[in-house]
Design brief:
Elements (H helix, E strand, L loop, with lengths): L2 H22 L2 H4 L31 H11 L18 H10 L1 H6 L14 H12 L17 H7 L1 H11 L11 H9 L1 E9 L2 E14 L2 E9 L2 E12 L2 E12 L2 E15 L2 E8 L3 E12 L2 E8 L9 E12 L1 H10 L8 E3 L18 E5 L5 H8 L12 E7 L10 E6 L12 E2 L2 E2 L1 H4 L2 E3 L2 E2 L5 E7 L2 E9 L17 E5 L6 E4 L5
Parallel strand pairs: 4-11, 13-22
Antiparallel strand pairs: 1-2, 1-10, 2-3, 3-4, 4-5, 5-6, 6-7, 6-12, 7-8, 8-9, 9-10, 13-19, 14-17, 14-18, 14-20, 15-16, 20-21
Helix pairs in contact: 3-6
The protein binds heme C.
Length: 512
């Protein structure tokens, strides 16, 4: 690709990163089954702008509204499979929803707000309300620009200056020389963690991560969100500017945006039975984003804070995963296969991470490598993004494609897909349930839990630990996000995934 085209692409991606990926890199979580009990039939509400003293006659420019929608809504309301079948990247759909009153009702709904993470600032809601009251025009008086051309916003935010400032902060990132505490951390991280997740203010009562070694000094876990995207984190030993330390690699693909961010360990704190490890953005430091993992015996509290690439004055809490280690045997088995643990670093980075190319977005504020393209797969985007560690380097990991043949009875259902240690069904093929829902002790063996949207039939697990799994498909007819007696369930089947392979399974036995 010619340099010019590529830098334009990157500038868009850079924007998308700050606005969408950081804000919403975990939005795929919000789409997972655990949260779908928030879905509800929606009463018709008249289009009322929020109460305001602002002058309703001041014309609102569509460009301003579009900016808000792009920043705050399109992670979920875009193809493929837009939430609530509402594709807000289409100006006419946004207009229709505004004129019908739903858009304004939902952004002002304190109980079920849009975005689901919480009410937008009052001025923003007032702006959208005024736009709707003026008939929701979708022509702009401003310079014509394409949907993704956000150069005007970038100039306004003067991000290149910000970039300079943050870039200079890079020198303040001082990695901690870990010694054998590095392996100690990786060993602690290993295991099947089951607990709860709080993400951008939303609570998910059940959540799990499955961490196992994938190399001599490298452990990995992933949340596989399904047809919309995924989010992985791996931790490894690295020689970073001559210091042996720990690095975290975090990111994934969400709605066609590839992102990988790198963090370095800068602090370990011991206090009354707990150990806290802090990782900070390898370029922007703690001002841009950081996470802490606190281990207390077999418990983990994992918090992540982000400033959305410096757009917020200081990082705010993005997620809290609070969990208990249920087992380590799968990690122990993987350790034997990959020669874990060894203190040999995965990467030697004498000059740290190369500054990512964010094109006209300005100087990179973060060690975040990004690319946006709905038509490309993760391998290709990883190369284009300049990501130093890519999926093809992780040769121990596998993939799995699951294709479900839908019968008419489940044609419209969201399909819940589970890879678990124990089968969900008994010899007769019925769900191992009690009181109408799956038994808790069976559900707690779930390792991965993506969904297949109504409009799709296939799902590919990427970055999958090889090993044995039980695969179960549940058609979520009662739309409560969990397997229950009201949902057709296909009999669990045992899969053995060899390292570095990509098998495909066709499921045609979910009963009608
Ligand atoms: C994290 C994902 C997510 C984000 C971000 C998000 N939405 Fe939604 N939205 C949903 C989901 C899921 C539903 C369906 C469930 C529900 O209604 O709560 C929905 C439903 C809606 C509906 C109701 C659809 C209908 O026709 O009744 C509207 C309107 C809406 N969203 C508007 C917005 C707007 C405007 C924004 C940005 C300001 C936004 N959403 C941001 C996930 C999201």
């Amino acid at each position: 690709m010619p340099r010019h085209a590529s830098s334009i692409r990157v500038s868009r991606t850079g924007r998308a990163f700050s606005a969408i990926v950081i804000a919403c890199s975990l939005c795929s979580f919000a789409m997972s089954g655990c949260l779908r009990d928030a879905a509800h039939p929606w009463p018709d509400t008249p289009a009322l702008p929020p109460e305001s003293t602002a002058d309703l006659s001041v014309a609102v420019d569509w460009a301003a509204v579009r900016g808000v929608i792009y920043d705050r809504c399109v992670t979920c309301h875009a193809e493929p499979g837009p939430a609530a079948d509402l594709n807000l990247t289409l100006a006419t759909s946004a207009q229709r929803s505004a004129l019908e009153g739903r858009l304004i009702a939902r952004i002002n709904d304190a109980v079920f707000p849009m975005p689901p993470s919480g009410l937008l600032p009052e001025e923003t809601r007032e702006l959208l309300g005024r736009w709707a009251a003026q008939g929701a025009p979708i022509e702009s008086s401003a310079e014509p620009r394409t949907w993704l051309d956000l150069s005007a916003d970038l100039e306004r935010a003067d991000l290149s200056t910000e970039g300079e400032r943050m870039g200079s902060a890079a020198s303040s990132v001082v990695p901690l020389a870990v010694g054998d505490r590095g392996i100690g951390f990786l060993e602690r991280m290993n295991g099947h963690w089951v607990g709860s997740m709080e993400l951008m203010g939303q609570a998910m009562p059940w959540f799990a991560f499955d961490y196992r070694p994938i190399g001599p000094s490298h452990v990995h876990g992933i949340f596989e969100g399904g047809t919309m995207g995924n989010l992985m984190t791996s931790f490894f030993l690295a020689r970073y500017r001559g210091v042996d330390t720990l690095v975290a690699r975090n990111g994934g693909v969400l709605n066609g945006i590839y992102r990988t961010s790198y963090f370095v360990l800068d602090r370990i704190e011991e206090r009354s039975g707990s150990t806290e490890y802090r990782f900070v953005d390898a370029i922007g430091g703690a001002e841009i984003m950081w996470m802490t993992l606190v281990f207390t015996e077999d418990r983990l509290e994992w918090e992540a804070y982000t400033s959305r690439m410096g757009e917020q004055p200081e990082p705010s809490r993005h997620m809290l995963f609070s969990a208990k280690r249920k087992s380590v045997d799968l990690a122990e088995r993987a350790a034997v296969e990959v020669g874990f643990p060894s203190d040999e670093p995965l990467l030697d980075l004498p000059d740290g991470f190369a500054a990512p190319d964010w094109g006209s977005y300005g100087r990179a504020t973060s060690a975040s490598y990004m690319w946006e393209d709905r038509g490309l797969d993760a391998e290709r985007m990883g190369v284009l993004a300049g990501d130093p560690v890519r999926i093809e380097h992780l040769t121990h990991l596998s993939r799995l494609t699951v294709s479900v043949e839908r019968t008419p009875a489940i044609a419209d259902a969201t399909l819940l897909v589970y890879l678990s240690r124990e089968p969900f069904t008994d010899e007769s093929g019925s769900l191992r349930a009690s009181g109408g829902s799956i038994r808790e002790n069976v559900f707690d063996t779930v390792l991965l839990f993506p969904e297949i949207r109504r409009t799709q039939n296939d799902l590919t697990f990427t970055y999958l630990h090889p090993g044995e799994y039980e695969l179960t498909i549940v058609a979520d007819l009662d739309r409560d996000g969990i397997p229950g007696s009201g949902d057709p369930v296909g009999p669990s089947r045992r899969l053995v995934i060899e390292p570095g392979t990509h098998p495909r399974v066709i499921v045609d036995d979910v009963p009608p």
